[in-house]
Amino acid sequence: MQFPLFDSAEVVVLGAGCAGCTAAIAAARAGADTLLIERYGFLGGTSTMVLDSFYGFYIPGNDARRVVGGIPWEIVERLRRYGMVIERPSSYGAGQAVTYDPPTLQVVWEQTALEAGVRLRLHTFCVDVSKEGDRVTGLLVAGKSGLGWITARVFIDASGDADLCFRAGAPFQLAGEDGPAQSLTTTFRLGNVDEERALKVKRADLVRLMKEANLSGEYRLPREEGSVHRTPLHGVVATNMTRVAYVDATDPVELTRAEVEGRKQAMEYVRFLRERIPGYENAYLINFSTQIGVRETRRVYGDYRLTREDVLSARHFPDAIAQCGAPIEDHHPGSDTRWEYLPPGATYDIPFRSLIPQTLANVLVAGRCLSATHDAHASVRSMGQCMAMGQAAGTAAAMALPHNGVVRSVPIAQLQQQLRADGALFSGAE
């Protein structure tokens, strides 16, 4: 069956989460005709429909050193102009957080992308790809108007689930094949909270009260921890508490079950907070996350695979394009979260090779579908790093155009020089 040509661009980015947005902005600013494809009606992905805090900008510990700059930090500064960002010390192990108002971030993403010259195509879903040898030539997309093709010279897979690479036949590992995949979380926000009283409850006290609630038999709280934090809005707190385990989030049947279970759990945590925690007595539910938060699905096999040893030894690479100091944060199926830290003050590099999927010539990945093992992924998936990867991928995609779109032909020294000129932070030393 023949399908019409919907559109064409030099660089096409699939997925407008924080990685895809920064990738598209970087590619467009570098002069490439760039089209950003997104299945929802807004930009931001997890950053605007699940979470309200960027982690990964700062290393953990008392030395709140910032390790991500460039376009990601520009987004933070734009949020600051709206008065909708606060930086708060983390009580939960991942380092200082940058907390924002998600609807405001939707506007910031859109306006920053449009100002850069990015063309947007929302409400569009990729269902297949076309190939010639090792090159992807087009995406078959679906929308209300039907099916059609979008062609490009270079593609960036920022879908989170490696949808483009999967359909192009690139090798990948599905989370859960080598041990349980990271669990999923439905987040929620509460209003009319007495913040002065509520935020005096320490983490240890919250854990103790959750355990007591479970032992009473009156509640079912699968995760006996989680975070509750203040937001830029008075009387509003955001949570990260629920836990839905053993889910293949690439299977719509399993994901449907997870969505329903996540909201059911969220209501139980709301009841617990109202009945057991000071300051929440008169709180009301504002909203659930637009969809359940997915931490891990497909991880491509790239020209390099980031490992647990790379993370914990703070390894540096000659082809570095970003850096990370975040701990390994494993949301396993149990009631707690496992943390493993780098040496104090240390960071490791994210190599450009981990963004290049094997067997494909003109495709890059950015975000949580990068080439990494389960443990390394549990560190590098922070949104600060996803955005930094996006900036690198978008810049590299534009630089690949004079090389017939072959991403491996991009001179790494030239790429690093451009990224640094644009404010990116990384070491790049062997």
TrEMBL record:
Keyword Iron: yes
Keywords tagged on the record: 4Fe-4S, Iron, Iron-sulfur, Metal-binding, Oxidoreductase
InterPro entries in alphabetical order: FAD/NAD-bd_sf (IPR036188), HdrA-like (IPR039650)
GO-annotated molecular function: 4 iron, 4 sulfur cluster binding; metal ion binding; oxidoreductase activity
Keyword Iron-sulfur: yes
Record's protein name: FAD-dependent oxidoreductase
